[in-house]
Amino acid sequence: MNAKLAFNHKSYREYASKLDQSKIIGVAIASRASQIIGLAKRIHAHPEIGFNEHRAAAWQVGLLKKWGFKVTCPFAGLATAYRAIWKTFNAGNGPVFCFLSEYDALPGLGHGCGHNLIAAASLGAGAALADALSAARLPGSVIVMGTPAEEGGGGKIAIIRKGGFNKVDAVMMAHPSFRTVPDGGSTMIAGVQVIFYGVEAHAAGFPEKGKNALDAVICLFNAVNAWRQHIVEDARVHGIITEGGVKPNIIPGRASCIFYLRALSDTCLAGMQKRFIDMVRGAALITGTRYEIRGFGQTYAARIPNAPLNQSFLSEAKSLGLNPQIPARALRGSSDFGNVSRVVPGVHVYFGIASREIPGHSKIFTKAASSPYAFKQMLRAAEAMARVGWSFFKDAEFRKAVKNDFQSKVVDLA
Length: 414
Fold this sequence. Notes:
Elements: H1 3-6, H2 10-17, H3 22-31, H4 33-45, H5 54-66, E1 70-72, E2 82-87, E3 96-101, H6 115-136, E4 141-146, H7 155-161, E5 170-177, E6 188-197, H8 213-227, E7 236-243, E8 254-263, H9 266-287, E9 290-295, H10 307-319, H11 337-340, E10 346-352, H12 363-368, H13 372-394, H14 396-413
Parallel strand pairs: 3-4, 3-5, 5-10
Antiparallel strand pairs: 1-2, 2-4, 6-8, 6-9, 7-8
């Protein structure tokens, strides 16, 4: 029987839905393991900060082309973004499942957030799912999308604005952590830069002639520290001083700082922003200085986890020995994946790369992100994601549940 003709028959669809593609996916990951690990190692050894990930992007593009994907790079107006697509049998009549890759590093820490592992896992998952779909001759498309500058630059937001997620039915990515957990949600984040302007004067000879901009910054930090006791438990505020003067004997005429405000809801964040501005004004009044407030970076939305995708990942992660746990609360970090989760169903899951709790954005995590154990777990995470993708293609009821869950939560936000 001709498979192209038979596909439209119910009997063939039932047959395809019962195929055990887990073996094909496992073989696909295993056969590419050295290439996937090699990619993770190269990106880790050559860290590049947001929007400058030229080598990391080029290495991924080269590998995806080698594996048969059609790649567009640059993509969405971003030099280090890409879109790689594999169209299977009768692709236009099937779903589109997308794996997101991140690969930017942290200044001074390298891959202290493990984005080298995210990139490699997404490529492995995309290739394995493409193999499984091709073997089963199920219609649809697999996308691996390279999204630069997650660490504050908001590469995914730029891609959203360019329509990069149009016609995508679901998205997924796996982030390294000290444990394996589903997507429990995350805070939204807004960055703010504050510049205070005072008057320079000799700090010993004419202090009465000066107005100390650094004192204003310090007053603001003291106000924020007093405020922390009164913010809700799931909110966060933290900052750094970026400019504090040039010499001890010159009263600083200019000083600046950057703060991040985080909350789980738009309403809470709006209230925090208003209170923060009041504290800036107060610091300026106390010190007799002027102030300027600027936005800093992109505002990241809180994530909307998709329950059916989460549950599917939990099941596959358990079967592959990733020992998943259920987090007690939403995570306090933030990601531009939150913005993606507002426009397409998706999950941002985590896989463990350590035997004990270690903090992200640390030298310890940087080291862990290039360990043999991390690479082993990365391959398992890639396989788990590919299996979730396979379920999405073969099971119409699963696709419907994913869509319904997303639509119900988006309506609640409106």
